[in-house]
Structures
1.
Amino acid sequence: MDDAKSNPKLTLLPLIALIFYEVSGGPFGVEDSVSTGGGPLLSLLGFFLFPLIWSVPEALVTAELATAFPHNGGYVLWISSSFGPFWGFQQGFWKWFSGVMDNALYPVLFLDYLKHSFPIFNLMLARIPALLGITFSLTYLNYRGLHIVGFSAVVLTIFSLLPFLAIFVLSVPKIRLSRWFVVDFNKVNWRGYFNNMFWNLNYWDKASTLAGEVDNPSKTFPKALFWGLLLVVCSYLIPLLAGTGALSSPPTEWADGYFSEVGMLIGGFWLKLWIQAAAAMSNLGLFEAEMSSDAFQLLGMSKMGLLPAVFSSRSKYGTPTISILFSATGVIFLSWMSFQQILEFLNFLYAIGMLLEFAAFITLRLKKPNLYRPFRVPFQTFGAAMLCLPPALLLILVMCLASLRTFFVSGAVVIVGFILYPILVQAKNKNWLLFEAEQLSSPSNGWHSIDSELVGHENKDTELPMSSPLPMVEEELSLMESDSNPK
């Protein structure tokens, strides 16, 4: 009972808020879609069509696999079960690195909004201490407990979206429909446009790394993903329809932070200040949600034996202390990069990982048709493959549009992951570091294969026991210990 009190589970509303912040956090950052799209038309069309092509398939895949594997580690567990621990580790490394890069954006965006009213944050003398102070403060809040982060996310969601509801109400008399159809194809920056769309609509799978912390995940996850998807799409389209329809601002003015000027022009100075405050608070929520997912992903990988046992150590608040500190350190080192640099790098790494997830989704349908799936995408294997085809093509397009520098940087990250895995295997074999795998795979401790726990439960109404620790795949463990190629 004490453990349950010290580590309360996430319920539906906090999980919706965390998914909202994993993916969106509000319309802050979508302004670039107007300028890179050469006008409002492509921006509005993008936020109508991209959720259908990209967000819905990813959310459905996440709902099926997160409920089939309701443990921390999320997609790392999916890939390990499909292709073996080598690729599970690579997936975890790519996703963690892209997540840390993503998190490095939010303190930067926080100050970018504040500098419109406080120009001192344009100076590095003030900007660097502010970035460090924000990172340390939010890291401490994350350390204090996931339930606190979830509750904070609910409050921040309400506060961040209310000013845009005000913008919409005030803009209705000023809207001219013809302004929505403006586009200059000669000024479209396709690389920037697709990267902006992709970044604002991805990371649906991130919350799966918190599955072990969710109350009744088989029912809670699908509901949370549905309402999260609806909330994200509305939070983009409503402000864009209001701002672009009520104002005749040239597309070049739509850049990061421009919604505060939209508030000024539509409602006055009070609305501008409210939007700036909402933007600042939203970026705090984005940071908290991303930090939680990154940290609990490392915890899950540690429980699987892919990382040293120290990453699974928890504080008295139930949070993975070392994993949080490790992720925060990465944020500090990456926060010096520019917004567009970070955006392109993390999109490329995320795209590689998502292609692997779609492959795992189809592979598990073929290899383990009897895997217990509390939520199942309502298609047979061929239909499921067709569901994944459009987003897979979009992923390839985003990767092809990347700059040469992004190819080199991302390639270097991939190579580091390939090198790091055998080093960790050697550290495990030589007992240089303590891993939990030996304990998890020990018959004397009662551990068993995840396949034997899950396969054959297709027709059962009862859920798997959530209080039991994460089981290990013994076949995968033997592969790790022999340092052989993954199956």
2.
Amino acid sequence: MSKRANTELLPQEKRDGQPFHKVSEIGSRREQPIPDEMGEFEDAWEDEIESDEDVTNAEDGEGEDVLPAIEESEEPPPAPQVYIHGTHVLNKDEILEPDDSVYIMRHTMNVNWPCLSFDVLRDNLGDERQRYPATAYLVAGTQADTAKNNEVVVYKLSSLHRTQKDGDDSDSDNDDDDNDDLDENPIIEHRSIPHQGGVNRIRAQPLPAAAPLPLPSQPYHVATWAETGKVHIWDIQPLVESLDVPGTSFDKSRVHAPVFTINSHGRTEGFAMDWASSGPSSLRLLTGDIHSRIFLATSTPSGFNPLSQPFTSHTSSVEDIQWSPSEPTVFASCSADRSVQIWDVRSKGRKSVAGIASAHESDVNVISWNRLTTYLLLSGGDEGGIKVWDLRNVKKTGSVDPDPSPVASFAWHKAPITSIEWHPTEDSIFAASGADDQVTLWDLAVEQDADEAGMDDTPDGGQDVPPQLLFIHQGQKDVKEVHWHPQIPGTVISTALDGFNIFKTISV
């Protein structure tokens, strides 16, 4: 495209009085303005006029080289390449950069020691929260360098602002919220208590939806599975209170010592643990260890009472436990023996009542019971597979019938599934994390459009993307656990060796 003079950009009636180029295309000086009867005005361009020595004739070829005009390209810049795990390989000099246009909120939090397990604490700020900045409370257990340096930490994350997006956001539904898109750092506050030994898993006492937090005089219990083989129960209510009310002091003797310690497992450590609630003063805690045993402890007004007889149908390490959301005496478990078992605490002999003997091709690491459609159970295996089971088809213990087939199965992850959880209010959506550094969001209600069948844009040699896969979150190293925030819809929190991520995507 040829370069035009300034005068060609204006109509004739607006060209009068406009300055010309200092040097024309043939290098001659411009004409001096003709003075009128009022006298000469100071030349506004006098300081910019080159001396005679500086003016060169382009035809002589002397003086400084004249660079050619830069031609503008009408081609749009190349779009950024989307990284798909298993399809693309990062070179040594390449790093992943998040695309903030697909996040409503995204924050990262570094910690002193890795927290391989955490739980989301309920708060009094209300349910179904949509406005920003947001606030969230977490409780986590550390994996420090030495046993004595470990802690149970309560975090308060506030000023969680919306993500600063690129481009024009004029179509946003929240244009009236002046503070929605501020690019500010979140505020992180925490309180901690010492914990002997690394924390394999931590779970907070369940609280009913829309119910207020316990009063300051009432306990808010958290259980920790220690690598020492002990299960400790703590009261973190004073820590939460001190975060909410500046200047609040608490009795360290109430906090720094466990409310109760379960010694049923001896020195055998474990990972499986889940709470259930039968009322404000009646709690039940299940714990499973690597020697295939599951113990139950219940609470009474006077304290906790661990039952001495274990549940013993698994033949290898118990990896995860989940209470039934609809039947108070029923729970599910999964194991390194590749099975998923269903139990009823009322059954004699402490044996499972039903199960899937070969749920996965390898160890079954995690399970999640759907709280809305209560006959659906998720499982994640060591081979990276995710399966959805209809518990109405699970065979009773001792039956010779073959194992049922899963109602859905996904093989996207290429490393062990480390965590899996149903969405708290959407019965078809779940989140999963894997040792392949991915957090994935899924929706079972999505089906492939018949018009799109056969239209595959996957790169050659790449992995087909299932239509149910809504989102892939990356950037963390060795993701260990993922949870939905029960009071901020669509918000996901994940923990890994390099810290926490809290985010909300445009997909959920």
3.
Amino acid sequence: MRGKLVSGKAILFLCISCFFAGTLFTCHIWTHPSNHGSESLAIRHDCDHKRKLIEGQPGDVNEEISKTHQAIQSLDKAISTLEMEISATRTQNGELSRQSASNESLQKAFVVIGINTAFSSKKRRDSIRETWLPSGKQLMELEKKKGIVIRFVIGHSATPGGVLDEAIDEEQAEHKDFLRLDHVEGYHELSTKTRLYFSLAVSMWDAEFYVKVDDDVHLNLGMLVNTLAKYRSRPRVYIGCMKSGPVLYQKGVKYHEPEHWKFGEEGNKYFRHATGQIYAISKDLANYISINWPILHRYANEDVSLGSWLLGLEVEHVDDRSMCCGTPPDCEWKAQMGNLCVAAFDWSCSGICKSVERMKAIHSSCGEGDAAVWNVDL
């Protein structure tokens, strides 16, 4: 065809023929995939999916939008949680820094012992002053020379300035052995009282340990200090007689737990915690309570509350059975064998039964001697 002109119709026909030939060839390739068939199918599937969305499948579009919205919400929640944690950490670090600065001006001590007492317990306090608690100048001397601070812990009555508060003021003027809390006294407020005691004690004394003991328990101060001294190099120590009693869900019984449902099925037991007659915590745990006390939950029973505050922390639970000896003959024969008890009381009474009448006899049989605490080397 050299030298001859080709008409426009022929060129158009040739182009159309090539187009259809290419289309047939392409379809043949898609119908009979080569080694890359799986990739082609994946591409085709993706294209079909996008085509369906474009062609107006409202259900699929809504589903994609919903998934995207959920992902954004999850990210927002995660970011919010991180911001809260960062804020809490900054606040706590600030509190710890202020606490550290404040501690430099506080009176140093080895241990602060708070004796939990009530307005109606004057005779109990007197029985303790006559036995294991030094009084007057000796109490102040024990504080200065040994770093052992001991105070009866009490709040105020429902009518501040009334007869009950005046009686405590007179007793304080005579003995100078009270730590007054900004707290209304009441049996069902013991968890709050415990929080406030640790918070106030930390703000007044920079001690290595803080102890709470009931006013119907016999205590050997020298043995207590020697026991605590074994753990002075360990962080976050919680010392006492550990137990795990049943959660009492029946209304009207002593130690009834209104929030029993939080512990699972009826008949379940509490987590391990120190019995409430006496226990000790190290400085860092007392500081933790002091910083966080507004948000620490209070259960019906004070010892359970303390155990719950420390449950989620890296805390060493020390189960020391010398802190829960029975009254004579139990603590008596142990003393005769050279195994003096830190504390003695009756489990049946959650303290010494008829403690006012029996405290002197127990001190005579199970006491370490009045000089023991003065001979402790700290």
